[in-house]
Please model this.
Amino acid sequence: MKVLVNIFALAVLGFPALTLAAPPKCDGELPSPGNGNGTSSEAKFVIDAAKSQLGSSIEGAATDKTGNFYTANFGNDTDKNTIAMLNVDGTLSLAYKDNNNETWFNSIRTMKSGTADGDFVMFAGDVTGHRVVKIEGLASGNPTASDFCKDSKMLQPNDMALSSDGNLYLSGMNYTETSEVGNGDLWWCKADGKAAPLDKLHRANGIEVSSDNKYLYLSEAVNVGGAVTENRIMRYEIDAETGVKLENKAAKKTVFVDFKKLDQTEATDIDGMRCDKDGNLFVTRNGLGAITVFSPDGSLKSNITVPGMKSVKNLEFSGADGKVLHIVGNCDKAEGEDEATPAKGCIATWTHEAEGLEWSQL
Ligand SMILES: *[C@@H]1O[C@H](CO)[C@@H](O)[C@H](O)[C@H]1NC(C)=O
Ligand SMILES: *[C@@H]1O[C@H](CO)[C@@H](O)[C@H](O)[C@H]1NC(C)=O
Ligand SMILES: *[C@@H]1O[C@H](CO)[C@@H](O)[C@H](O)[C@H]1NC(C)=O
Ligand SMILES: *[C@@H]1O[C@H](CO)[C@@H](O)[C@H](O)[C@H]1NC(C)=O
Ligand SMILES: *[C@@H]1O[C@H](CO)[C@@H](O)[C@H](O)[C@H]1NC(C)=O
Model:
């Protein structure tokens, strides 16, 4: 999401107990990130500025099993209380509009529900309402919504991750010129809807659960005097009792990726983060027009560029086979275009060889 400068969001999902061949070590040192040389490839627009009916607050990304893709802010910039659907046939439409016009959806997740094929519920994070809304009946075109989880002490939520057993993890930030611990937060919405704070840190944004439900990834950025000086991905161990594992009563975490060490792009914010079903982590770099892909051991796999969309915000796999990575963000302005005109919300895609985690669990 964009508040003052660039505030972004991310979310994820959790999954079944497929153990990875070589699980990352959970204590002590993680393998250092790889030294580059992954493959690089380009994403292409499916909704460009000319076709866009999406506002500049486009954010959040989710799929259903049919391969329809969802993102927030259908319409113009005042319509932050809406969820758009990009039908698998390529058409855009309004999927849901909240009754409260102050609602600001910035993150979305979907989860299998019911017994019929394709039945699902959507969780949508509302920044201004400090709540998660549960939306049912989307597949039948007759959506109904209820508050699932709410706490006015949450900073936002900015983005969300969902484990396959229905636990939600929420990130938030308070953008300040110089950040301190507490300008970012991590919350847990238990499967029964109860909210609990888990950690405080510098600005928190992208968030995802590993494909085996074991780890929680959360991005953290540091500001000093208006400049962004750090961007890293922290990793927590999920714990059924306490949300994340604790050490001396504080959330225990390790550095999974540090962009200062990796490629000196620490001044560019991490935004959305999502896993494929094998646990590879896809990370948007909002401002660089790129998605950086990491293996479950933290090594760099590849870099996907998104020409025409420097402000890449969030992403999720969708499409009929669940392998099409949909990337949402703002289309770059045309040369000479009025500064005051809001940028359009756009969608680009890139095809993977594996299904996304969310799609595979629906
Ligand atoms: C990366 O690619 C360059 C150019 O092809 C090569 O010189 C270098 O050895 C490669 N590094 C690794 C770690 O594979
Ligand atoms: C934005 O859309 C709303 C309806 O959703 C409409 O009332 C409003 O006039 C529109 N604003 C602009 C600037 O087009
Ligand atoms: C919501 O609607 C009220 C009443 O029409 C209006 O005063 C307010 O400005 C609107 N808020 C937003 C965020 O559009
Ligand atoms: C955000 O940070 C500013 C500056 O430190 C502080 O004054 C404000 O109370 C903070 N807001 C929240 C909601 O924590
Ligand atoms: C990924 O691509 C972006 C845009 O070209 C570039 O700025 C960044 O350094 C690349 N990162 C890696 C790890 O190659």
Q: What stands out?
A: The chain has one domain: 35-361. The domain at 35-361 is CATH 2.120.10.30 (Neuraminidase).
